[in-house]
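Holo prediction — methionine sulfoxide.
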Amino acid sequence: MFTFDIQTTDKAELYRELLGAIDAVTAGEADGIANMANAASLFWQYLPELNWAGFYRFVGGELVLGPFQGKAACIRIPLGQGVCGTAAATRETQLVADVHAFPGHIACDADSASEIVVPIVRDGALIGVIDLDSPRTARFDAEDARGVEAIAALLAARL
Ligand code: SME
């Protein structure tokens, strides 16, 4: 059993604690699915105002749904489509304040209003993306981007 007490509401500190928690549950575990499942659970536990948190894996040239928390979601996303496919194709974090204004946004959950997607890259190869959705417009900012990117960098070697 893992028990984590969230000690802060300060966003930078929250991401430091979340990174530490994900580090602790994935250290020494070689199974990437297990590590994504625990990381999705910790995103859900630590970060407020989320309606979806999880992973898409880069498999066979497209994104395929991975472990997540939230409602059942779209299973396959072609590269270049939607927020996730754009992050995967460009390998750049996508911070979307209003998903309804994002051309080609894929509405998996009608509750989503804003979204952040961070690519996971290992040795120049795309592994997948981390996707967080919020029912609040403009929920995610540059601090979230830095925090999730640090987690993507940690997980890149553990998926
Ligand atoms: N909205 C995403 C699809 C994935 S769901 O949000 C879980 C997109 O446009 O890529």
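READOUT: The CA atoms of residues 85 and 150 lie 20 Å apart.
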